[in-house]
Write a structure and sequence with these properties.
- By secondary structure, this protein is α/β, with parallel strands linked by helices.
- The protein is built from 15 helices and 16 strands.
- The protein has a 7-stranded parallel beta sheet with strand order 10-9-11-8-7-12-13, with helices on both faces.
- Strand 4, helix 7 and strand 5 form a beta-alpha-beta unit.
- The longest helix has 21 residues.
- The chain is globular.
- It starts with a helix and ends in a 7-residue tail after the last strand.
- The mean pLDDT is about 95.
């Protein structure tokens, strides 16, 4: 296959389709989304069978557990894909919305209209659900999409792509509105990120190495986050029951996700009571604890063994595994300083019953999602009511945090006049 010619063809087709999706009615887009959801449910056995092939090959290739976890589909996750598409269909259509209209002294009225970005290129590893989520979000926001999944999910991605394509056709929309790259050749990625004439923005979802490469080499704007080194801070005013539940869930509900907590910070006044309680839970769930001197002494003093010394590297590490770094801090000031030094600016949480301290944490933590008394695992487009997410952005321009429909749009100025001319 001539990769350059193939990708140029996909690009041209996407650009042509984007003009039609930008003008498509809300009804047509929602009809397509609901058809995709129905087809995913109907074809669930085929999706799971294709996923089983991918999983068998992934294990044979020795993929790390976190990658296998992301790759795995179940009946529940297939249903979540379908439900996500239905949620997107139920969301208000942002395209064409006109806001901030103001009359100027000249008589003209000036406002802003929300419009699609155009063609979105999504590059992702493992997670086959991204195929459905990305297709749905790009379509509802009036964009066309070129999706390039990893070779580890090849069979499953193609099955999902067939559901997407057939849903578009049912609704009378161009089937090229969502195209899934059919080759696993890595050169396809190099072409996709250097076609500004066809692609308006790139969204990479995968490991840090993939995202660093794309950010370095792309000639197209990139919406990204590199990693998710997320923190939970248990404040001196924390409710112990809430703190234990949150610290447990944020770390152990799922290990291989970017919103999983990797570091636990505990105010020294609460450490003696809190650390043995959460430590026993982590030990039961076989979570390896890497602790500072003070937290190590408290944990071992409560009868827990196998506690390792935390290193400087541990504070900055996204483990994506049953490992957590633990540090006792003097209080809120030191917790904020630690987080802003080591965080990847993804998601941080404070457990506190003091409103003033909670609001200070919200203001001073420089991350894309900041939470009070809730698990970091909620940092997700579905949980935020976006229907689904195209990815998480830790950048500060255009989009930040979970990127849903609005993050895939822009605004243009519109002017309403009645014959006015400039003097």
């Amino acid at each position: 296959m001539d990769i350059q010619s193939y990708m140029q063809t996909l690009g041209r087709q996407a650009r042509e389709a984007s003009r039609l999706t930008a003008a498509a009615s809300t009804r047509a887009k929602d009809t397509a989304l609901l058809a995709m959801a129905r087809l995913i449910r109907e074809r669930a056995p085929a999706l799971l069978a294709a996923n089983a092939k991918d999983l068998e090959q992934a294990r044979a290739d020795g993929l790390e557990p976190a990658m296998v976890d992301r790759l795995t589909l179940t009946a529940k996750t297939v249903e979540s894909m379908a439900a996500g598409l239905e949620q997107i269909a139920a969301l208000p259509d942002p395209i064409g919305e006109i806001t901030e209209v103001k009359r100027r002294p000249t008589g003209i009225q000036v406002g802003k209209m929300r419009v699609p970005l155009g063609v979105i290129g999504i590059i992702y590893e493992a997670r086959p659900n991204v195929t459905a989520d990305a297709a749905g979000l790009c379509l509802k926001s009036g964009n066309a999409a070129i999706l390039r999944g990893g070779k580890e999910a090849l069979h499953c991605n193609q099955e999902i792509a067939a559901c997407v394509r057939d849903g578009l056709i049912e609704a009378g929309l161009p089937e090229n509105a969502v195209q899934v790259v059919a080759t696993t050749d890595r050169a396809a990625v190099g072409e996709l990120i250097t076609m500004p004439q066809f692609v308006d923005v790139i969204v990479p979802r995968g490991g840090k190495g993939l995202i660093e490469r794309i950010s370095r080499d792309a000639r197209v704007p990139v919406i990204k986050h590199l990693d998710g080194n997320c923190h939970v801070y248990v404040d001196v005013t924390a409710d112990m029951g809430k703190a234990v539940r949150i610290a447990d869930n944020a770390k152990t509900q799922r290990y291989g996700t970017c919103n999983t907590a990797e570091t636990l910070l505990v105010a020294e006044a609460e450490a003696a009571e809190f650390l043995p309680r959460i430590g026993r839970i982590y030990a039961e769930k076989q979570v390896e604890m890497r602790a500072c001197e003070r937290s190590k002494a408290i944990l071992e003093g409560s009868g827990l063994g196998g506690i390792k010394h935390a290193t400087e590297e541990d504070w900055a590490t996204e483990y994506l595994a049953p490992i957590i770094a633990i540090r006792v801090v003097s209080g809120l000031d030191e917790a904020i300083a630690h987080i802003n030094r080591y965080s990847s600016q993804h998601t941080e949480a404070i457990v506190t019953e003091n409103h003033t301290r909670a609001m200070r944490f919200l203001r001073e933590i420089d991350s894309s999602s900041v939470m009070i008394n809730a698990s970091t695992r909620f940092a997700d487009g579905f949980e935020y009511g976006l229907g689904a997410e195209i990815g998480i952005s830790t950048d500060k321009l255009h989009a930040r945090g979970p990127v849903g429909l609005e993050g895939l749009t822009s605004q243009k100025w519109v002017v309403f006049g009645d014959g006015e001319v400039r003097g």
